[in-house]
Description:
Elements: E1 20-28, E2 37-39, E3 42-45, H1 63-82, E4 91-99, E5 106-107, E6 110-111, H2 119-133, E7 137-141, H3 146-158, E8 163-165, E9 182-184, H4 191-201, E10 206-211, H5 216-231, E11 235-241, H6 248-260, E12 266-269, H7 272-289
Parallel strand pairs: 1-4, 1-7, 7-8, 8-9, 10-11, 10-12
Antiparallel strand pairs: 2-3, 5-6
Amino acid sequence: xxxxxxxxxxxxxxxxxxxxxxxxxxxxxxxxxxxxxxxxxxxxxxxxxxxxxxxxxxxxxxxxxxxxxxxxxxxxxxxxxxxxxxxxxxxxxxxxxxxxxxxxxxxxxxxxxxxxxxxxxxxxxxxxxxxxxxxxxxxxxxxxxxxxxxxxxxxxxxxxxxxxxxxxxxxxxxxxxxxxxxxxxxxxxxxxxxxxxxxxxxxxxxxxxxxxxxxxxxxxxxxxxxxxxxxxxxxxxxxxxxxxxxxxxxxxxxxxxxxxxxxxxxxxxxxxxxxxxxxxxxxxxxxxxx
Length: 290
């Protein structure tokens, strides 16, 4: 059997980059990961002992799987920087990890509820441990918790710490006045071009939209798509609210609206629960009608 190499193990650093040292803080719900040791909220050991084989169930990934591989990707980026003589010459980057999930909300290292609001615990971590006790931290990677990111991002901007989160994107974070030091890897604009190229390849000229009209990010992405494809000659047949799918009468309204405009191609944008309700609800209606 092939040996699984832990990508978080210490890596070689070029000799000419060891004159000075700075740190990047990895922020996230590290209480989700097993066998870690902490000093307050700071991870002080255990990451190097976690086998990647614990986190390879990609068919049904847990919240911890996402956190672990986000950490791995960022760790590999730091390794490459430390072995590049042209980027930050004479400087080694170290990683410091901080937990933003209240460990009292965890059981045996696993979150009891990944949607629990941990913003208060996260802000306490940033103020009392990251900022006050670790002056060598010059930037932040994280968080993945939607319940915490807007609060922690406001602190990063207040302390003028550049920050990037890998997945917990939020439309309000695009406000440069409030979050001038935060950027996101996921985008909420520019997707219209990608959708148009797909429709063009399929020779599709008519499409319907269903999206979560109560969610700012969903509105931003969907409106961007609708505006772009309309300007390029694609007819948007109807625009419906995904939240209608939470009731039987709402599902029937969606079904009749799509039937009325003869929609063959439908773009659905929203979270997995709402999207699943509409998708499988409409499937059941079709079965009943036929």
